[in-house]
Amino acid sequence: MSTPPIGHNAAIAALRDVFGDRLSTSDAVREQHGRGEDYFPLAPPDAVAFALTTEEVSAAHRICAEFGLPIVPFGTGTSLEGHVSAVEGGLSIDLSRMNEVLEVNGEDSDCRVQAGVTRKQLNEYLRDTGLFFPIDPGADASLGGMAATGASGTNAVRYGTMSENVLGLTVVMHDGEIVETGGRARKSSAGYDLTRLFVGSEGTLCTITEVRLKLYGIPESIASAVCQFSSLEAAVDTVTLTMQSGVPVARIELLDDTQMDACIRYSDLEDFEVRPTLFFEFHGSPAGTAEQAETVQDIAAELGGSAFRWTQSQEERNKLWQARHDVYYACMALRPGCRAWSTDVCVPISRLAECLIETRRDVDETGLVAPIVGHVGDGNFHCGIVIDPDDPEEMATAQAFNKRLVARALAMGGTCTGEHGVGQGKIDSVEAERGEAVDVMRALKLALDPANRMNPGKVIRL
Amino acid sequence: MSTPPIGHNAAIAALRDVFGDRLSTSDAVREQHGRGEDYFPLAPPDAVAFALTTEEVSAAHRICAEFGLPIVPFGTGTSLEGHVSAVEGGLSIDLSRMNEVLEVNGEDSDCRVQAGVTRKQLNEYLRDTGLFFPIDPGADASLGGMAATGASGTNAVRYGTMSENVLGLTVVMHDGEIVETGGRARKSSAGYDLTRLFVGSEGTLCTITEVRLKLYGIPESIASAVCQFSSLEAAVDTVTLTMQSGVPVARIELLDDTQMDACIRYSDLEDFEVRPTLFFEFHGSPAGTAEQAETVQDIAAELGGSAFRWTQSQEERNKLWQARHDVYYACMALRPGCRAWSTDVCVPISRLAECLIETRRDVDETGLVAPIVGHVGDGNFHCGIVIDPDDPEEMATAQAFNKRLVARALAMGGTCTGEHGVGQGKIDSVEAERGEAVDVMRALKLALDPANRMNPGKVIRL
Predict the structure, then answer these.
(1) List of E strands, A236-388
(2) Does the distance separating the beta carbons of B179 and A189 come in below 8 Å?
(3) Does A411 touch chain B (CB under 8 A)?
(4) Could you tell me where the beta strands, DSSP code E, fall in B202-338?
(5) pLDDT (tens digit, 9 = 90+) per residue, A44-61?
(6) Inter-chain touch A163–B429, beta carbons under 8 Å
(7) Average pLDDT of A367-385?
(8) Where does residue B112 rank: exposed (0-12), middle (13-18), buried (19+ CB within 10 A)?
(9) What pLDDT score was predicted for residue A39?
């Protein structure tokens, strides 16, 4: 590992004055903060500061400004496109110890949390309130990280993404200025929407330290169902017709046969066949969920789906959805010691069948191990390429495959990333997708971070 | 009216080369573009260009850049806070003739329209597709204007605001560069969310020329109901309990007794009493709407509301909601020749009753004519102050009242504007509400419009 450049010693000393033994320069801690759950090379920061308050983050920013150090905000390190690698060194600000739920307003269904609170921790905290927070990326990510990445997950088809569910943020700008965006009102036209600009900005514009979120009443009735199909086409056609029917389905997830195989083994799922499978969830009143489920069951039956298999007990439901959330780990278990590279295109639903089928064929032709799983109600799906990053030939094959996949999605009016974000991995893809808009993004970045010290090397090329 | 400054003649000549007789410098046309439906003094532009294409708007921007002319985008002129007044002169770009629906993708429930298409025009166009666009400010505003203002309306409680429903924009930057934001994918994390930054930017960052929108299936069943109450408290408590019950009500609108009086007279509503009144609408399946309505009816009955009065025929429903949309005009009809000044605070729902009751008392003490109407499911309400702008004492009373109202809302965790935007009228309020965040907004504005020629004098003070 590289030695911090000259001048950093003074910076480290100044940071130690603020953080004491919560500042680490040990190899182990730096390595742990050197990448996320991705396929990028390790790039450790020069130091890691474990912050407890917004004011400490502000102090760290001021010191980094003084010494010209890059800043990389770090949550749970579960991002997938090289977001948290310290590619230019500098300070990793670890927010995981800022894990307090600051307020819950039950009457207004909102809450405010420190950035390090994870989604599971929040829902555990809310358990007795009758409320929940629905956004659920696979990992038990921090809510600050989820806001920074613009995460979504299996519930987005009904509840939206982080963008629709963050009411406001507390952030620290590059120079240490603390700024609050948004607020408790459910809607506001009071000036530019900084909240939504910062959601998905991946630490390149500011460090998020607190998040104000919308909450939802736990539905009176929740019904889950699984249905298996003889072909990918039939499964996707079921999704398309379901979406067009206007049924307010809460979750509709597709696992292809390879993914089912991996999940059956990793999560001990019983009595499932290795076939394309849809997982459904319906939220509402008892009458409403029954009505929704009936409509979808009829559609699936028309397309040759197996009878719905119901999972009405909460325990069985949790097991099923945990299996769904664990697909990343199930993929990695296919080739122990490898990393998973999760692709992330999203296309208009009318093009989804075509895109999935072409992609499945492409995977098969490459010989890559790449199960497919999708938030198909949104047109978003992932290939979990299980890869040995030290095998240059395999990496080249995967890179070429992903390039074709992104081009395919863009040609269909889609996007190169539905929810994982840009990080280091999608910078070129965003340029291909957004064109002139990248010039505007660049102007915004330079306006808010003129020295390019906020998570440099991510999102855009300056 | 003032004479255009020297140098403008060459600009006018260059603009005339592009627009021919679609460029006007007549007093009548300039006056018509000199203000919206607001209480601000007339401030006509030097000229008005009626654009037909994005390329023409781009050409106009380039000429204005060359000659240093301010640019004021203009849709239907129905904004309420002085948004379209040409306070520094310059060119008003009228987009009303860009009124083509460019594409409708039924399978994906999305469409793309030119900025001048109005919400009613779009819904008329969609009539046979089974789809509709739900966002409905009072006026039949242009969709470009609605995006620019971050409009919402009576359906926001279920369908969200423009921010949740714009998938992408075509915009022209200050220097004439044409930029597309967003796209057809339902979600994307591909770089900074420019779409949402430009929604609500009120022409101060760019001119919006095309809008890509989400559409929704027309619900299988729509049920409307009206319920009258003996007190404002009882009506608001019904709203609060309804929202907390989790019923997915589509619309829930409050009209106070003064407003009901105005509406009964202006819209010939029959068999209503002059009492605080709630208008409801439920969307869903027949079983679903019946279930929703029953729950709400029970809540209202508990709080002493009159029996629900149902309006199941589409004609009767339209009449009722048209009356709701016409409250602005109903208010103005109370004092012919006056203007209406519509306040716009939004508070957390738990504080709504308190805020409304204090505000009603405040109105009564001032002696102003100011009926109250509210999108109360969102915590947003308007006092329609009917005012003679030429009476300085009355204006001062209204200003002082609005200042107290905003302070009251902010003290309750609310916002100074739920949906009307900032324009000229709320600049100070936004500074009070957003604090340091205004510095960030200022940096963004200067990054994207360094010479401050895009709708100067609106949103923020540079």
Answers:
(1) 251-255, 277-284, 309-311, 339-342, 372-375, 380-387
(2) no
(3) no
(4) 207-214, 216-217, 221-228, 251-255, 277-284, 309-311
(5) 999 999 999 999 999 999
(6) no
(7) 94
(8) buried
(9) 86
ipTM: 0.95
| Positions of chain B with pLDDT under 50 | 1
Nearest to B375 by CA among B330, B316, B321, B338: B321
Question: Quick one: average pLDDT of A132-143?
Answer: 94
Q: How far is B143 from chain A (nearest CA, A)?
A: 16
Name the residue facing B194 among A107, A417, A437 (closest C-beta). Answer: A437
Distance CA A74, CA A83 (A): 9
State the average pLDDT over residues A310-335: 83
**Is B380 within 8 Å of A349 when comparing Cβ atoms?**
no
Q: Using CA atoms, how far apart are residues B376 and B346, in angstroms rounded to an integer?
A: 9
**Which residue in A108, A149, A151 is closest to B348 by CB distance?**
A108
Q: What DSSP state is assigned to residue B415? A: B
Interchain contact A110–B (C-beta under 8 A): yes
Reduce the DSSP state of residue A457 to 3 states and report it. coil
pTM score of the predicted model = 0.96
Q: What is the distance in angstroms between the Cα of B386 and the nearest Cα belonging to chain A?
A: 23
Query: Can you tell me which residue has the tokens 């993004």?
Result: A441
- The closest of B92, B90, B88, B81 to B33, measured between CA atoms, is B92
A190 and B429: CB-CB below 8 Å? yes
A378 and B186 within 8 Å at the Cβ level: the answer is yes
Q: Would you say A239 and A278 are in contact if contact means Cβ atoms under 8 Å apart? A: yes
Residue A21 has pLDDT above 60, yes or no: yes
3-state secondary structure of A122: helix
Closest partner residue to A443 (CB to CB) among B191, B240, B448 is B448
Q: What is the C-alpha to C-alpha distance for residues B207 and B216, in angstroms, rounded to an integer?
A: 27
* A110 to chain B, closest Cα gap in Å: 9
The reply to whether residue B217 touches residue A185, judged by beta carbons under 8 angstroms, is: no
Contacts of A98 (CB under 8 A, 6+ apart): A51, A52, A53, A114, A115, A116, A117, A144, A209
- What is the tens place of the pLDDT at every residue in A438-447? 999 999 999 9
Instruction: State how far the Cα of B99 lies from the Cα of B114, in Å rounded to an integer.
Output: 6
Query: Which of the residue ranges A299-308, A310-319, B66-75, B286-295 would you say has the lowest mean pLDDT?
Result: A310-319
- Nearest by Cα to A343 from A416, A410, A285: A416
Inter-chain CB proximity A183 and B415 less than 8 Å: yes
Which residue of B154, B188, B206, B420 to mutate against A (max A Cβ within 10 Å)? B188
The nearest CA of chain A is from the CA of B382 a distance in Å of 14
**Widest Cα–Cα separation across chain A:** 70
- Long-range CB pairs of A12-15, under 8 A, 24+ apart, other chains included: A12/A46, A12/A47, A14/A63, A14/A66, A14/A67, A15/A47, A15/A49, A15/A60, A15/A63, A15/A91
* B43-67 core/surface letters (b: 16 or more CB in 10 A; e: else): bbbbbbbbbbebebbbbbbbbbbeb
Sheet holding A71-74, edge to edge: A23-24, A47-50, A91-94, A71-74
Q: CB B110 to CB A244 under 8 A? A: no
To the nearest 10 degrees (0 to 180), the angle between helices A286-302 and A232-244 is 140
- Residue B32's alpha-carbon distances to A56, A117, A142, B84, in angstroms, are 54, 53, 52, 10
pLDDT confidence tier of residue A3, bands split at 50, 70 and 90: low
| pLDDT at A1 exceeding the cut of 50 | no
Query: What is the 3-state secondary structure of B60-92?
Result: HHHHHHHHCCCEEEECCCCCCCCCCCCCCCCEE
CA distance A412 to A380: 13
Q: Which two tokens stand for residue B166?
A: 């714009």
Supply angle C-alpha B300, B301, B307, rounded to 5. Answer: 95
Interface of B with A in 26-85 (CB under 8 A): none
